[in-house]
Amino acid sequence: MASPQIGRVESKEYYSWMRGHHAYKDIFKPVIGTTLTLQREPENAKDPHAVAIVEDTGRIVGHIPLALSRIVSSFLKRANHKATAEICGKRINRGSGLGLELPVIYKIYGERKYLNRLDELIHGSETAKRALREKDEGILIDGQKKRKSTKRDKDSLKKQKK
Questions:
Q1: Which of 54, 56, 109, 157 could pair with 82 as two cysteines, CB 3.0-4.6 Å apart?
Q2: Cα torsion angle, 136, 141, 147, 149, sign
Q3: Cα separation of 91 and 94, whole Å?
Q4: 106: CB partners within 8 A, 6+ apart
Q5: Of all helices (H) and strands (E), which one includes residue 61?
Q6: Per the record, where are the segments of Basic and acidic residues compositional bias (predicted)?
């Protein structure tokens, strides 16, 4: 009997946050550029769909946002599907009671048809879309937190050009 064909592995990137850093800050010192692994955590008492972010040693150092966990956890059930989180900024407390977070780039690996379905599920859910961030949101540039441009910023630029 022939073994099933596994399609070519591709990847997609999502800009989001690593949640729960406040709970792990004493055991994990984030370094920009560090790549960590995403791992399903079905035994998690708070969320059976939780996806932990782990170091190479297997130690948990954070979690993906709850709004993404059910979708990503389901995707990671397939043996050839993997995911990583690359730290791309300094920790931040954005308010709203979420504690310390780290801006990360989630890189999801799998077959194209499943990646496309993952993308549809994430972008088709208002809750999941809110867990994403703009590419530069939360990133520190020259010691300043970069933020989205406002209408006032754009008007100011127009005046400077005149």
A1: 109
A2: negative
A3: 10
A4: 13, 14, 15, 16, 38, 64, 72, 83, 84, 85
A5: strand 60-63
A6: 152-162
Per DSSP bridges, beta strands 60-63 and 102-111 are unpaired
pLDDT in tens, 11-29: 999 999 999 888 888 888 9
Residue 99 near residue 21, CB atoms below 8 Å: yes
Q: Residue 93: count other Cβ atoms within 10 Å of its Cβ.
A: 12
Which tokens in the block code for residue 146?
A: 């970069």
Residues counted in the chain: 162
Strand partners of residue 83: 108
Name the one residue in this structure whose structure tokens are 């599907």: 81
Position of tokens 């990360």?
104
Matching residue, tokens 């073994």: 3
Look up residue 4 and give its two tokens. 């099933």
* Structure tokens belonging to residue 35: 């790549």
